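Here is one such tokenized protein:
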Amino acid sequence: MEYFNAFWVGGIICALVQILLDRTKLMPGRIMVLLVCSGAVLGFFHIYPPFVEFAGAGATVPLLGFGNTLWSGVQKAIEENGFIGIFLGGFQASAAGISSALIFGYLASLIFEPKMKK
């Protein structure tokens, strides 16, 4: 059942984003920022953690999950370091994911030959 919940919740999130792309004049970058900020706001109001508990990877993999990760990192760093935690927390919480994306992207560029658009 966990896989099913992750699948349909992630699918609904993606479908809603696709509707935003198709029906509004919002550019993709703005929609991505909207998703990250929405995840952080939902985390702030303690709405996102129960959602993650129900949906699992369907809620943590989309950009909403990244926003929530940033918020939870900032919240933890503020508790530990005070005001300076505002600047440290997001970097500490997301460092592993961002670093792995960069490393695997670099490795893929070594294996595959990129093709430039003409």
Residues 85-111 form the longest helix (27 residues). The helical segments are 2-23, 28-44, 48-55, 57-60, 63-81, 85-111. The chain has one domain: 2-111. The CA atoms of residues 52 and 75 lie 17 Å apart.
